[in-house]
Write a sequence for this structure.
């Protein structure tokens, strides 16, 4: 009997890549998404890649009645991988209440449903943003979490704490939080990838849209940081490597191999890369010369962060396999694919 996994935010960037890996690993997948920041067609593309088009339920997880209706009619769910959340850092500063309401009420409704319908496991999509600017680098899971630099980051920090406290109070629920560093790239099929609505906030979609000609130039937000080339440093990992970690984490819970009822893992390459190095990687990987200009710093940016992924390497037996150039190449193939096919997406 196939294990059944609910993937919330399943038509989104990381959710869709994780759904592909789950299906290819023999799981039955049900996607839940309100399509606020993604398209239903992504479910068909998951089917084109994996051979099985997952069931897609379209509703808002903030609607407790809809959440309970879903779980009362869809029995035998083994675990939830919870991606669904608003995630634009800049937007969250302007709309804090929307971010707190959406990202936290949806989580509370899911946890209530897990208790009500006996769903034992959750894998939670968290973020390195919970560390703020770490004192020590590379950053390990026991580094202090800091007052997040944005309401978005704070919803991840609070989300982790809500889950931890729920697990501590209820022995029937076990969870793993995965703290992502910077996911980039797209599935090698170029059928799914990052699809930012409007002007992208994140670096790599801005690079690929500039390379395609949608943007005149890339603005590099500051080169006066205390880093070798003056630009900010991040830990960029391929989204397919990241997706595979979710399959391993849900398997760990289902097979009761977790060492405690609540675990946290950093998911990164362990290597810091500056913005200027990322640009060079894109140019090397694609042969395209990128037009960019150094501008002033972006408020809220931290200077440098990269992961110490040794706990995930050891405990999950997971490590990143793709290079930065691979990730940049797949990001570019995806950009070309969506622009060429004047897709409906
Ligand atoms: C990366 C670097 C920018 C755009 C955020 C969230 C994190 C995760 C990923 C969701 C920074 C520079 C960017 C541009 C630039 N989100 N940059 N010009 O801010 O590290 O992380 O997004 O899970 O939780 O905090 O990612 O891609 O926005 O920026 O110079 O046009 O690229 O200054 O140094 P960030 P990013």
């Amino acid at each position: 009997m196939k294990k059944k996994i609910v993937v919330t935010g399943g038509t989104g960037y990381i959710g869709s890549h994780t759904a592909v890996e789950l299906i290819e690993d023999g799981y039955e997948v049900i996607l839940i998404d309100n399509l606020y920041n993604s398209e239903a067609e992504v479910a068909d593309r998951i089917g084109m890649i994996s051979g099985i088009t997952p069931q897609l339920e379209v509703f808002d997880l903030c609607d407790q009645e809809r959440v309970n209706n879903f779980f009362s009619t869809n029995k035998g769910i083994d675990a939830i991988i919870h991606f669904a959340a608003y995630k634009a850092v800049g937007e969250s500063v302007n709309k804090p209440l929307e971010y707190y309401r959406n990202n936290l009420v949806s989580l509370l409704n899911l946890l209530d449903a897990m208790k009500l319908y006996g769903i034992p496991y959750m894998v939670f999509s968290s973020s390195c943003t919970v560390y703020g600017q770490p004192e020590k680098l590379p950053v390990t899971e026991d580094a202090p979490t800091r007052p997040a630099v944005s309401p978005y980051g704070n919803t991840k920090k609070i989300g982790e704490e809500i889950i931890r406290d729920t697990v501590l109070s209820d022995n029937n629920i076990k969870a793993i939080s995965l703290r992502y560093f910077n996911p980039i790239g797209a599935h090698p099929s170029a059928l799914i990838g990052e699809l930012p609505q409007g002007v992208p906030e994140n670096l790599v979609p801005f690079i690929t849209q500039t390379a395609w000609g949608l943007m005149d130039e890339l603005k590099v937000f500051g080169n006066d940081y205390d880093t070798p080339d003056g630009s900010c440093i991040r830990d960029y990992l391929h989204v397919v490597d990241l997706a595979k970690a979710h399959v391993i984490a849900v398997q760990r819970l289902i097979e009761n191999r977790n060492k405690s009822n609540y675990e946290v893992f950093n998911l990164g390459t362990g290597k810091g890369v500056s913005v200027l190095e990322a640009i060079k990687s894109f140019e090397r990987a694609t042969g395209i010369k990128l037009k960019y200009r150094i501008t002033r710093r972006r408020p809220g940016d931290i200077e440098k962060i990269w992961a110490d992924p040794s706990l995930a390497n050891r405990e999950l037996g997971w490590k990143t396999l793709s290079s930065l150039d691979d990730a940049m190449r797949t990001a570019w193939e995806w950009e070309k694919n969506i622009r060429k096919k004047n897709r409906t997406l």
